[in-house]
Amino acid sequence: MANPTLQQPSFLLANLKADATTKPLLQRCQDLVKIIDEYPAKELHLIFPWLVECVFGSLDGVIAGWNLRLLHSRSNEYNIVMDFLNPRYGPMMKLVYKLQAEEYKYEIPINYLPSCCNHITACIQEGVLPDCPLFHNKLQFPLSGLLTLNIAFNPFEFFMFNFAYCLISPKYGSSTDSAYFVLVDTYLKYFLPTEGSVPPSPFSDSRGSVSAPSPRYYVSFASYGIHSPSLLKHHIFHQPSVNADPAAQEIWRSETLLQMFVEIWLHHYSLEMYQKLQSPQVKEPFSPTEEHVLVVRLLVKHVHAFSNSLKPEQLSSSPSAHSHTHTSPLEEFKRVVVQRFVHQKLYLFLQHCFGHWPLDASFRAVLETWLSYIQPWRYTGEKPNPQPDQNRTVPEKWESFVHENLLMYTKLFQVFLNRAVRTDLVNAKNALMVFRVAKVFAQPNLAEMTQKGEQLFLEPEHVLHHRQPRGYLTPGQGGSYLSSRQRVVTDMVFKVKSHVYGLEGQDCQYKQMFGTELRGAVSLPLIQIIVQARQTAKRISDHSSEVAANKSFLSWFGLGASDLNHSFPGAEPEETGEYLKKTHEFLDRALENLCQIFKLNQGQLNQLISNLGSLEDDGNSKQLPDCVQSENGLILTDLGRRQIINGLRRFDIHYQGDPELQPIRSYENALLVRLFYRISSLINERFGRHMNALCSRPDFLGRLGRHYLTNLDSSTKLKHSPMSRHVLERSQRPKLSLRPLASYRTILLLLLFYVFGALLSLGPISSTVLLLAGGFLYGLLMTLFADKLKTH
Questions:
Q1: Which segments of the protein form a coiled coil according to its record (predicted)?
Q2: At what angle do helices 91-100 and 47-56 cross, to 10 degrees?
């Protein structure tokens, strides 16, 4: 870092800090514009770190900054911030370039690196050079020891590091119309242009060119991928000076921005660390927010658009031909930007999100990020085809992309299916996600391309080793005159295997997306759950329609309660009739697409739907979830859990203990409840054996005793509850219960009965005898005609 020789910068910084607490943002920005224009770089050098902290917040969280993620277009300060930070004409970027021309450095202690860079910090502390090229040649080794290591960034890197880190700081409440989200989009469009080139810096050093990092900086391109040509090979590595080609020195800003975004936002690990984190004992500290994932999706979409803007003649040129033709560094950057900068880290990022994200509708952000990456043909800048989405054929030119990103299609698709079978598909938002995935993979040619990629990966190793020397040697190097077709196939086999082994390790156990194992374990159960969920949605929707019709009829008489949603009691907004109709539509179309993807027989699907439909007609909603009986009660199976999640079946929820020991209700007299419990307990304890003997008799007296001493409705409900066998048998023993007499309703009825008896000149004893006789006759009649009543 440059050491100040004047005292004036310290007064300048002190004045700016004082103004930060007294002046409004507009006046502060106006003052900063004048200072940036009038002061030399040597004096601006000391205020730059403070200004960056004021804008983005400090790394330790003490300074909040301008809260870009909470600043929306409705705010009065929105336009001020956007103009100040604009990459084309903003004063902040002008300050960055002014300091960049003087080659100043700004240090960040490694212990202040965010948690997303823990893997980099661990490598540095262990004395190992991190695999991230962005941090190469930037370590500062002080004399005080290893623990105080610093990373020295140039002004542009320092600015972009803080800008990227602002996203992962603990702030909430942002959305896609925030100042931060719009700035990310603006910076991506400016530094990764789809048309033209990156505008040059307005400032230059004394030699007449912008000060860029050393040529060693571009070793980063060679460190990505396996056996692939190095980026900027012709323009950078073979040049004596970085200033020999002005275009070559300009592209470092585009690379720096992309690498900084990828390293900070796409939390990733080495393969060994990633495999360790699969253990359930290891706690994963990284948990991206929905806002974080939305910004990553914005990055993915723009990187695809940037890569697809490559000229067709440059895209089709071979690596060997490329080394002898003149192409700009920006075109070279577009050629390799996806595979070497984004592919590996995004895969680990998405796999982490797929495995740790809650099973709710917020997963839509992760899902759309994944679907955006695996559909680069959507971001070609061409006019959309007027054909419907399901009829659009994936062009053959994208076959190599599918093969080189095979795990993005197959592995993540399998993980999604495992999530889907554990999700409530009656919810319209969850049903929409299943439909979106099925619709994407049902695009013509995509399933065939994916299946072909799996076949290339599964090609035996001895065939690959037999072909490889012939495929990579030219005739002049001693190779045979192998057909170009064989060379292409050998090259693709090698790329697919390198891709899979590079991400999953040499000992990975690959599961085929179109194999019988996945089809039997996941695909068919998912289709079964979809069929059940759509029937449940239809049943609830029909019920909601009936309730709405009844309420509309009764409302003419003023008897209907107002319910704008026309939903069943306790329904969420997503469970109303309108949403359930959407659920049915989404699941219908998802079924069609899944059958198309896996080539399922339509006749078998129709049979499955009809079988499940017959179960629904037989009262499926009243049946228990699928479970097995054990000594400790009913135990749910995996099918039973999915039935409960999707609302297909459920257990009856009610009190399962001793009915006499239930909490005293508000409609009961507490004193009488306790008194009658003691009386009934004494009677049951003394005459319990006689009651059991009476109720065990198969004749009429046994049936009469069971009518008075057992609760048939309660026993039936208990059989359909997950209670242990011992508790169930104890609850079904015959016993006398006097607790109903403690109810205020019963007391009132008895009081009215005795008053009515008094009006008829009946004494209390006569009324009591009459009451007991009436109760006995009622029980007698119920016992005599019980069978006929059940049949009816």
A1: none
A2: 140
Cα–Cα distances (Å) from 429 to 295, 388, 416, 582, 638, in that order, read 21, 22, 15, 9, 23
Q: Which residues contact 43 (CB under 8 A, 6 or more apart)?
A: 6, 8, 9, 12
CA 270 to chain CA centroid, Å, is 22
Residue 106, SS3?
Answer: strand
> pLDDT per residue over 433-459, tens digit each?
999 999 999 999 999 999 999 999 988
**Spatial CB neighbours of 723, under 8 Å, sequence gap ≥ 6:** 633, 634, 656, 731
Q: At what angle do helices 290-308 and 329-337 cross, to 10 degrees?
A: 130
In DSSP terms, 627 is beta-bridged to: 636
- Cβ contact 282:275 at 8 Å: no
Enter the pTM of the model. Answer: 0.72
Question: ∠ CA 623-627-633 to the nearest 5 degrees?
Answer: 105
* Residue-wise pLDDT tens digits, 238-256: 333 334 455 566 688 999 9
Concatenated DSSP letters for 233-267? IIIIIT-S-TTS-HHHHHHHHHHHHHHHHHHHHS-
In this structure, are residues 728 and 718 in contact, taking their beta carbons and an 8 Å threshold? yes
Q: Which tokens belong to 741?
A: 């007499």
What is the DSSP secondary structure assignment for residue 105, as one 8-state letter? -
8 A C-beta contact, residue 370 and residue 350: yes
Helix (H) or strand (E) holding 443: none
Q: Which residues pair with 630 in a beta bridge?
A: 633
DSSP assignment letter at 732: T
- Output the DSSP codes for 41-68: HHHHTTHHHHHHHHHH--TTSS--TT-G
533 pLDDT band (50/70/90 cuts)?
confident
Q: What DSSP letter does each residue of 680-726 carry, written as one string?
A: HHHHHHHHHHHHHHHHH--SHHHHHHHHHH--HHHHHHHHTS---HH
Task: Answer whether 527's CB lies under 8 Å from 605's CB.
Answer: yes
Q: What is the pLDDT of residue 379?
A: 92
Mean of all residue pLDDT scores within the chain: 76
Assign 725 a pLDDT band (cuts: 50, 70, 90). Answer: low
